[in-house]
Amino acid sequence: MTEPHEIDEDAPIFAIAAAAELSGMHPQTLRQYDRLGLVVPARTQGGSRRYSLRHVKQLREVARMSADGIGLPAITRILELEERVRTLHRQVSELEQRVRAELDNRPGARVFAAGTTGAVVRLRHGTRVRRATEVVVWRPRTLSGEPETAPDGSDAG
Fold this sequence. Notes:
The protein is mainly α. The protein has helices at 16-23, 27-36, 53-67, 72-105; strands spanning 42-43, 49-50, 112-115, 120-122, 135-138. It folds into 2 domains: 16-104, Multidrug-efflux Transporter Regulator, Chain: A, Domain 2 (Orthogonal Bundle); 107-157, no CATH class. The strands form 2 sheets. It has a 3-stranded antiparallel β-sheet with strand order 4-3-5, with no helix packed on it. A two-stranded antiparallel ribbon has the order 1-2. Helix 1 (16-23) packs across helix 2 (27-36) and helix 1 (16-23) crosses helix 3.
């Protein structure tokens, strides 16, 4: 989500002439890239092409790669993979936020004790066990992979 003063990179705001000028290409080149599926802009209800800032950046990148001798099929694949990486980054961020929210909403439900008989007992956060030889305390690792610390400051993992 963007801040009120930021421009959404994916907002289709540029007509083909403006996008061509911003990318340093001829409008006919942009039409060809659209037909090839290389950089596909959004369309208005009337069918006019509308390019976003992300499209303009892609067009500049296509021009750079093409000048470096990379063929259009390879450029298409590179752009597809870059989009896949962006999607995966977005999904990972969303999942991390959901995990953090879940952990924040259930702080007492993360600590368990197992007795010598194997029975699992949920402990409240900050509860001390009387006999450490009869109970094992388990805590999940944090998102960084480090074990959480016990209320007394010791390693609980």
